[in-house]
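Appendix B, Record 12. Input sequence as logged:
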Amino acid sequence: MGRFFATFSHRIASWTGQPAAFILAVAVVLLWLLTGPLFHYSDTWQLIINTGTTIVTFLMVFLIQNAQNRDGSAIQAKLDELIRAVENARNDFIGIEHLTEAELERIKHVLEQECGDDEAHHHAIERLLQRR
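Logged structural output:
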């Protein structure tokens, strides 16, 4: 079941990110708008679009979250492998994605302090920002 859901969610998330999916969604909304006069803009007519969009949104949240979780895990595994493979890298960073937000903030603060407050560091950042 897990493999089926992973494959299904990946395909749906990939497809819905394509221009064709957006065009299809716009076409459905336009079709619904065009049928308004036919149904005299009734409550049922409005309920159709509200219910349809709510259901699609509800289901897409789970599919997209699954795809993002899988992608995030893959990226973490790749980064962990790079840390492990680089001779001077600190292996302590492997698995830090499991730490709390406060612990990650402390690590980030320590790393920023290690970079120093020197003038060269600030100039390098300014040059980087100017490239944008």
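The chain has two domains: 2-96, 99-132.
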